[in-house]
Structures are given as C-alpha cells and as structure tokens.
Design goal:
alpha/beta; Rossmann fold; 5-stranded parallel beta sheet; globular
Length: 142
C-alpha cells in the first residue's frame, strides 16, 4: 500500500518549500504518492452571484487554482516526480483538514509563512489552524 501525502499550495515560496521537502521524501521512498491541493476562498457576496453564474464561478475557481498549482506542479514535473492536482473551494484550513481525512491521506506537508510569536497570535496561520484541526499527521515546513 502506498503512502499518500497531501501538499497544500497557494503559489507562494513557502508552499514550494513544502513541495521540495515532499520531493526529497519521495526520492527516498518511491511508493509515496504526492498530491497538490489548492483551496479557493468561496465568493460569498450575494451581489456577485446576481451577475455571475455558477459555471462562471466554477471556471474562475479552476483557473485560479491551476495558476496557484503551476509552480509546484512544474517543480515536480522537472524532477520527474508524478503528482496529482486537486482544487477545492472553502475556508482554507477547514478544507485542507477535511479533505485530507475524507480522501484518506497519510500525512499533510504544509509550508509555514514564518510567522511566530505575537504575529502568529494576532494574525493566525493557516498552518497552525491545520495542525489543530487535522486528524491526519501534519508536518510544517519553515
């Protein structure tokens, strides 16, 4: 049975560090399956929905998600590492934690934005929220 690792990405350098870490693990264990996930924040405004249809919103989420996945996907492809790409819509930390559990991932590897101390306390952190919400083990990469 292969180990499935979920790597949430948002197109940032912090997320790419998590992808690089997962790539190192995959080189040591070729049975690892790497899965990239981008979570799009839902459009909540009722006013927007008056002018934009469901299909247009879905296209928007897909286009934005693919753009956010591009750098991570390219990095893995250039290294010869297969991966699967996923796009979800929802509150970011909740969606990552729920997706990992529902899809039976073995682990989440997530990049930290490097906040610590008071900055993390005041601003919060997606990585911290995922650690607290996830039933799946989480590795945070600085």
């Amino acid at each position: 049975m292969s180990t499935r690792i979920l790597i949430p990405v948002d197109g940032s350098a912090h997320a790419l560090r998590a992808v690089e870490h997962a790539l190192q693990l995959a080189r040591l264990n070729p049975a690892l399956e790497l899965h990239l996930l981008n979570v799009q924040i839902p459009v909540e405004s009722g006013h927007v929905r008056l002018f934009v249809g469901h299909d247009q919103l879905e296209d928007y989420y897909r286009e934005e998600g693919l753009a956010a996945l591009q750098a991570a996907s390219t990095l893995l492809q250039q290294a010869g590492q297969a991966c699967q790409q996923h796009i979800a819509v929802g509150h970011i930390a909740d969606t990552i934690a729920r997706y990992a559990q529902e899809m039976a991932f073995s682990q989440i590897i997530i990049g930290s934005h490097g906040r610590s101390g008071l900055g993390q306390l005041l601003l919060g952190s997606v990585a911290t929220d995922v650690v607290h919400q996830s039933a799946v083990p989480v590795t945070v990469i600085k």
